[in-house]
Design a protein that fits this description.
By secondary structure, this protein is an alpha+beta fold. The chain contains four helices and eight strands, in the order ααββββαββββα. It has an eight-stranded antiparallel sheet, sandwiched between helices. It starts with a helix and ends with a helix.
Length: 267
Amino acid sequence: MNNDKLARNNATRQRAGRLIFHCSLFIVHCLLLAACGGGGNNAPAAPKETSLEGDRTERQPIDTTPAIDLSKAPTEAHKRLAQLFSVPSLIRESLAYGGWDGQSADISTQDPAQAAMPVVSADYLSTGYKIMTGTDDNKTATQDYPQSCKLVVIQAPDSVATGVIVANIYRKLESVGFERRDPIELVMGKDKLHMERFVRIDSEGDHDTVRIGYVAAFGDIVAYALEKEEPPKVTGPGNTQIQRVTDNRGSRLGAQLITMVHHLRGE
């Protein structure tokens, strides 16, 4: 190899080395710019380590108190009666223990532990139902029927004594303006449940108050439900009031509750 060729090869190697050096500097410069994020403080934060600790939203404590607290029953008889109450629609803390006053046909809350005839009562609230009347869209009237109901379950001394209790309840209802309507009879297999039904309707301003009483006896148990509705008045042609379905039938919330008592009792 002559001197000219050796010189050219050395020059080529020097140029290649300088090119590699400058490329390395350029790459390092780009990496530094990327690390700085191009704006100083806008660089993304480093990922946090996975941990079970950290910020948590404070949760409200959950009320775990049962709707029917059997621990508050003053006697075993009251506890057995409370077990006949359905939980759905029951108003929390409305369950009450007492005794049955045969003379007034009402509940006595004085010293329930000493009651000769234990009683348990509770209030229920239903979303009600909707009634539409008429077939022409232009003449259709819609009514909402919100319902509430008090359910009373009485433990009689025996099955014979239930007849006296229900007779006193009938007299009490009729004395305050209730009228007896057709009874309800339910046949469930071999079981039959008979309920007497009483209705009273009071006009009160822009609405009517409809009260329906249901009374049934099975075994040594008397179940009594007093249902209440306050539907708005609906008037027809000539400002005449449209007769409601509750005039003849009732919404049957009370009847449903008594049916559940009958079922849970196992009669």
